[in-house]
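Renewal narrative, Specific Aim 1. Our central claim is that a sequence can be written position by position from structural information alone. The example that follows is taken directly from our test logs and has not been curated for this report. It begins with the structure tokens describing the chain, in the order in which they were read.
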């Protein structure tokens, strides 16, 4: 049955399956590290510090990875991402005495490089597999890939917790190492050798985009993800642990369910934003949805201050924020692929996801600092301020790829 599909669909399924397998291990690995070090007595902020190198190297990897993808081909960067994840998992097979903070931070740095190589390659590959005049198909394929990734990352959270119930960190890492190794071997065999390779070899100086629309969208993306992570990454789990007296299983399960619902909503975005009218999103759609998102964190903070049960209101607000944020993210993911140059797509996509990683890094650092200084409410207010900046940056985004860019 697989052989009867068109070459483009077969490649899309290979890319998607590759991305799915990687994402499961990425979510599971994060939960394994969190629960393992929580069990050793580390607090949430100390555990969060383990992921700073993971986010930092995402900034570097997306920039350089886009260049490598255009020169070498996306099959190589995708398979390299899988191989580095295998190395990161292998680093966790050492005895407990050698699982120091520094060692795990280095393993997470390796995993961060792997994740962004894999993601950049998957998102860029779709552009080369869809006809230039099939924007509706492009939007659906991007939405499915993006939404399913986040859903599977949430499932990965559950998978990591489940594996830790029946084995230890090293045993869970070994299971994932074997499974992902098989996926890597299949990927080496099935991915096209010239997938995504630029016809004109890009120069290193071309790493920074000269496309105004991509620069504008990238800046808005950085603020969008900074606004999410300033309260979601550290402040929210710490607040639920301290104020609601939730244990780590409750916190982990709540975050996993949020990510699964978030991914499901991303997959539905084509039906919500124009598929029924037969059109793909435009720049004005990105502006509309980020404006709709902007007030939500501030409204959550104001409602919590006046409520008798602030935790319940926080969870309701978190759900609403997640649904609207998912639509924003899915529209952005489509627009960057649409705006990108067809020859050497990974250069533009890599630059854009560099901004995405920078936003996550900014949000992670601010989440810990602002929460310590002012608590969750100030994190929510600053989230609204960052979303306001994202709204201003979204004004004037073009409807489609600018001509001549």
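The sequence written for that structure reads:
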């Amino acid at each position: 049955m697989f052989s009867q599909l068109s070459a483009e669909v077969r490649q899309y399924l290979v890319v998607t399956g590759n991305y799915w397998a990687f994402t499961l291990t990425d979510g599971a690995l994060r939960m394994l590290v969190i629960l393992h070090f929580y069990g050793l007595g580390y607090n949430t902020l100390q555990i969060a510090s383990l992921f700073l190198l993971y986010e930092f190297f995402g900034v570097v990897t997306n920039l350089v990875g886009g260049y490598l993808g255009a020169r070498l081909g996306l099959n190589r960067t995708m398979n390299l991402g899988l191989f580095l994840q295998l190395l990161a998992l292998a680093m966790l097979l050492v005895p407990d005495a050698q699982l120091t903070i520094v060692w795990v931070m280095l393993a997470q740095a390796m995993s961060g490089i792997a994740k962004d190589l894999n993601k950049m390659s998957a998102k860029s590959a779709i552009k080369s597999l869809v006809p230039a005049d099939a924007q509706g198909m492009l939007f659906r394929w991007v939405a499915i890939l993006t939404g399913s990734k986040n859903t599977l990352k949430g499932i990965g959270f559950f998978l990591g917790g489940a594996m830790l119930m029946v084995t230890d960190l090293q045993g869970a890492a070994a299971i994932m190492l074997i499974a992902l190794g098989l996926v890597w071997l299949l990927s080496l065999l099935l991915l096209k050798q010239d997938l995504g390779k630029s016809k004109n070899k890009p120069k290193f100086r071309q790493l920074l985009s000269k496309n105004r629309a991509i620069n504008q969208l990238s800046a808005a993306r950085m603020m969008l993800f900074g606004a999410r992570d300033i309260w979601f990454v550290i402040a929210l789990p710490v607040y639920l642990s301290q104020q609601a007296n939730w244990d780590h299983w409750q916190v982990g399960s709540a975050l996993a369910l949020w990510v699964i619902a978030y991914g499901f909503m991303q997959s539905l975005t084509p039906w919500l934003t124009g598929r029924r009218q037969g059109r793909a999103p435009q720049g004005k759609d990105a502006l509309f949805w980020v404006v709709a998102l902007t007030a939500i964190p501030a409204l959550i903070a104001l409602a919590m201050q006046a409520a008798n049960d602030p935790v319940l209101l926080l969870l309701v607000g978190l759900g609403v924020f997640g649904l609207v944020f998912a639509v924003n993210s899915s529209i952005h993911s489509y627009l960057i692929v649409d705006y990108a140059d067809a020859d050497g797509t990974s250069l533009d996509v890599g630059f854009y996801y560099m901004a995405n990683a920078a936003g996550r890094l900014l949000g992670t650092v601010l989440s810990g600092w602002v929460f310590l200084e002012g608590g969750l409410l100030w994190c929510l207010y600053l989230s609204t301020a960052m979303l306001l900046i994202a709204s201003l940056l979204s004004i004037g985004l073009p409807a489609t790829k600018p001509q001549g860019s």
